[in-house]
Amino acid sequence: QYSTGKTTFIRHLIGMDYPEIHIGPEPTTDRFIAVVYGDEKKTIKGNALTGVNDLPFSGLSTFGSSFLNKFSAAVVPAPLLNHMNIIDTPGVLSGEKQRTARGYDFAHVSRWFAERSDLILLMFDCSKLDISDEFKLVIEELQPHEDKVHCVLNKADQLDTESLMRVYGALLWSMGRIFKGAEVSRIYVGSFQDEQLLRDEHVQLFNKDEQVLKSHLAELPKACSMRKVNEIVKRIRLCVVHLCVLGHLRSRMPYFWGANHVQTVLIDK
Q1: What is the DSSP string of the chain?
Q2: Is the pLDDT of residue 97 over 60?
Q3: What is the pLDDT of residues 138-169, one digit of tens each?
Q4: Using CA atoms, how far apart are residues 152 and 24, in angstroms rounded to an integer?
Q5: What is the pLDDT of residues 229-268, one digit of tens each?
Q6: Which tens digits make up the pLDDT trace of 207-236?
Q7: Would you tell me which of 18, 39, 165, 244 could form a disulfide with 74, CB atoms 3.0–4.6 Å apart?
Q8: Residues in contact with 88: Cβ distance below 8 Å, sequence separation at least 6, in sequence order
Q9: pLDDT score, position 225
Q10: pLDDT at residue 231, as a whole number
């Protein structure tokens, strides 16, 4: 959601600012920004970005100009981006007004990115765990990719140990209800920014979780090929099921007359 520290988190990971970066307590990121590697800092606008062969965003042209006007790439020479791209999303607000004001289907765009991602990080502010209607809709779109979803509980240095454990448990419970699973993927706890921590008692926990997260990011390029193989196998299995169903339905069709009636009954039942 907005003001959970997404942009600050990305800046902390790559170790530098990137073009069009803006950080504040209000909803500051109103567009999708792809943070990608390049020798010099620059911005590539959405319509031009779909024509760049070196980047995997050509498929986004199907969402039209209303989305592409809210999409751009920030090119920065950060070593972390040598083997990966990071997508900074707009903050999610509550209410129907925000959904209609975007001019495009935010949930479907999020699903497009999710299908092509190796890791999906859901950012939460420890001081406001409420999940708005639009955010819940987005999370539900991620159901098929539950294994790729990890959570980040940010700004956790604002809480003492007892409050932090209570918030951590509440987040686990909330995510378990939405994903309807017995377990939730890893939750990273920390204060992902360059400023000094407000409380020192969590330093060891924060450092450990940050190192685990960075190690996971470093391993993503190696796991990418295996993920693609896994996706191909899933699609092949769905294709086989589809062919079996069609073959069965075709075998029930009459050879001479009454095809339309039988077809209607098969579809209805």
Answers
A1: -TTSSHHHHHHHHHTS--TT----SS----SEEEEEE-SS-EEEEHHHHTT-TTSS-GGGGGGHHHHHTTEEEEEE--GGGGS--EEEPPPP--SHHHHHHHSS-HHHHHHHHHHT-S-EEEEEETTB----HHHHHHHHHTGGGGGGEEEEEESGGGS-HHHHHHHHHHHHHHHHHHHT-S----EEES--SSSPPS-STTHHHHHHHHHHHHHHHHHHHHHHHHHHHHHHHHHHHHHHHHHHHHHHHHHTS-SSS-HHHHHHHHHH-
A2: no
A3: 787 888 888 888 989 988 888 888 888 888 88
A4: 19
A5: 888 998 999 999 999 999 998 898 988 888 889 989 988 8
A6: 899 999 989 888 888 888 888 888 899 899
A7: 18
A8: 6, 7, 10, 29, 32, 33, 34, 35
A9: 83
A10: 83
Number of C-alpha atoms within 13 angstroms, CB side, residue 120? 21
Residue 2 backbone phi and psi in degrees, to 5: -70, 150
* Euclidean distance between CA atoms 74 and 9, whole angstroms: 15
How many residues belong to the chain? Answer: 269
Contact 113, 87 (CB under 8 A): yes
